[in-house]
Amino acid sequence: MRFLPKALTVPATSALSRWFASRAPKSDSATLNLRNVYIFFSREGMLYAVLLIITFIAGINYGNNLVLGLCFYLVSVWLISFHVTFAHISGLQVRLLEVTMAEAGAPVWVTLQLRSESRQPRRQLLFSFEQTDGKPNNKKAHKKIKHGADNKHSILVTRLQGEQIIRLPVPTQNRGQIELPRLKIKTVYPLGIMRAWSYVYFARTAWVYPKPEVFDWQTQYAVASQEDLPTGGQYRQGQDDFERLDNYVEGESLARVSWGHVARGQGMLTKHFADPVGHEQTLDYADMPAAHHEQKLAQLAYGAMKLGELGVTFHMRLPNDTHSTAPMGEGDSFAQACLLRLAKTL
Question: What is the pLDDT of residue 266?
Fold first, then answer.
């Protein structure tokens, strides 16, 4: 028995993948139809095909009509299974709703909306993303590692009627922008003889920010504990911003009395002022203690997440930012925006 050399099988697989991709252009929504649904014998179905051949040859050689009748009966079952399996997956609509951002090494979660307009429920649909090596911005680097029912990242939808939302993970390795691998939808319903499948290629990409790296926070910002950090949105008694009017308490300074209210006969009220607590922090790329570029970005990610959790107002200054262009904000939403900037940094 002769086997094709590995150098020949790889280009053949690549050519087949390109052919599949040419029949399903990239889009964030797709409908499975005659153009992008494929069907062939399953592994068990191959044994069924061998059984058909054996019964046909035996019936011809021995002139046994019962064996030939059994063969034709099995062929009719195969033809019915062929039609039902194809119709079971054809017409399914898939729409990409959301792609989350994740740190390097953690999975990106993809939210999909499935829609079936068939009156009969669709059963035993397997959804899985083709696993790749996770290298960003490199189309040639996306090669298949593992795929199929044994993939722990697959989801089996046992019954689908109307609409349903599912979430699938896409593993990542490196920081940057990654293309979503192709989504494979497969079914062997109802008899397991035929396997129908389709590929969906999404146009949207995902962003992966650096895995946060803890650094000497106290030394960098001279902060001893969380209580020492400035907290956005909190105020202390001061002189700058008017806060409220309270009833006059004996012993308070008369300079704070609102004499206008006294003149109008509204009683003695004391004016209270407030100053914001704390000061702004700056996360500067140049101040990070690491020596390498990726490590500095990882430390910035840690700082942004930490300050976002504490609600501290801060700047994040990257290599190409000036003092005036560095954005400022606070809270988790601003921290997420900073992580996205780190994911896009060259």
Answer: 75
What are the residues facing 143 on neighbouring strands? none
How far CA 15 is from CA of 9, 11, 37, 38, in Å, comes to 10, 6, 18, 16
Query: Which tokens go with 273?
Result: 């002022």
The token duo for 323 is: 């003092």
Q: In what order do the strands lie in the sheet with 328-329?
A: 281-284, 314-317, 328-329
Name, in order, each residue with C-beta under 8 angstroms of 27's C-beta and a sequence gap of 6 or more. Answer: 201, 202, 203
Cβ–Cβ under 8 Å, residues 142 and 181: yes
Task: Give residue 274's pLDDT.
Answer: 52
Locus of tokens 């039609």: 83
Residue 96, CA distances (Å) to 33, 91, 191 in order: 18, 16, 30
| 288: Cβ contacts below 8 Å, ≥ 6 apart | 215, 295, 296, 299, 300
DSSP secondary structure, 137-165, as one string = T-GGG------STT-TT-EEEEEE-EEEE
Q: Which two tokens stand for residue 72?
A: 């034709």
Residues 6+ away with beta carbon under 8 Å from 145? 131, 132, 133
The torsion angles phi and psi of 138, rounded to 5 degrees, stand at -150, 95
Residue among 330, 236, 230, 213 at smallest CA distance from 278: 230
Q: List the chain residues with pLDDT less than 50.
A: 1-9, 133-134, 136-150, 218, 222-240, 275-277
pTM of the predicted structure, to 2 decimals: 0.71
CB 85 within 8 A of CB 124: no
Residue 265: the pLDDT is 73
- DSSP letter string over 40-81? EE-HHHHHHHHHHHHHHHHHHHHT-HHHHHHHHHHHHHHHHH
- How many CA atoms within 13 Å lie on the side-chain side of 13? 10
Token readout for 70 is 């059994």
Kindly report the length of the chain.
Answer: 346
Give the pLDDT score at 222.
46
DSSP 170: E
The pLDDT tens digits for 121-147 are: 999 999 999 875 445 444 443 444 444
